[in-house]
């Protein structure tokens, strides 16, 4: 008697497994690689300044203050989508916003910023993708929140959205101030 | 004529394959072999179902250069891997390491295979016992 229902039970189990798979993929971005760097010190770096390539700017200049590092490139379509959000929020975040021009052509980057606006306090250039590997960057846009002690607190893979800024980034920045050592 | 066109196309395709991944200045065959072996064990993070050796993505090229330089600098395979794992997490390894959280991944298929095998064996044995001589009249309904 029981044997009759075995195929049905088997089917229900497989359907359940597949359903869970669909649910999981909908609620998780498959491309998102969890960063092992959260809670660890940001890599030390010194990269050429976008506006003055003869000079370098890096972790030494940012010592003691929290900052947001936004990886972008003029070649990156999602950055175009993200950029207005940064332009809108950059001033109200209360932390320095550092642009990280990654694997880009300077002329293209200049035209891109002229067209979409430049919300950054300072922009560093990593055309060779040297420091990007240390940061574990694998795509653009990516955004890091680094605290005053140089520890990476947040990493956003993909586009910054108003929703993410309001619900995750701003509270994290507030927490930085509260817990400032 | 057609054969010649085909030959040209195959030659062209081969040329593309050969140039898909930029060559690095290896000093000998052993070094190249070691590099290729390592690159096959590392995942291209942009195109996640490719390994570093196969991928032509920009980042994969950067990572290959990084691996090559560290290899040149005398780092061991494990040192290079842990360097990348520290930055990109274990996801960068094409073969997931064997540990508690990956046990199901490693052994799940074998467990399922065993369960299926036992089920088939039990069914076959039971039917054999029920129906020792499968004599069937022609036209009788097929029923399993």
Automatic annotation (TrEMBL), chain B:
Keywords: Cytochrome c-type biogenesis, Heme, Iron, Membrane, Metal-binding, Signal, Transmembrane, Transmembrane helix. Residues 9-140 form the CcmH/CycL/Ccl2/NrfF N-terminal domain. It comes from the Bacteria. CDD domains: CcmH_N. Gene3D superfamilies: Cytochrome C biogenesis protein. GO terms for molecular function: metal ion binding. The keyword ATP-binding does not apply. One of its GO terms (cellular component) is plasma membrane. InterPro entries: C-type_cytochrome_biogenesis (IPR051263), CcmH/CycL/Ccl2/NrfF_N (IPR005616), CcmH/CycL/NrfF/Ccl2_sf (IPR038297). Coiled coil: none annotated. Residues 1-20 form the signal peptide. Pfam families: CcmH. The chain crosses the membrane at residues 103-124. GO terms for biological process: cytochrome complex assembly. The keyword Signal applies. Belongs to the CcmH/CycL/Ccl2/NrfF family. Possible subunit of a heme lyase. This is Cytochrome c-type biogenesis protein. It comes from Tahibacter soli.
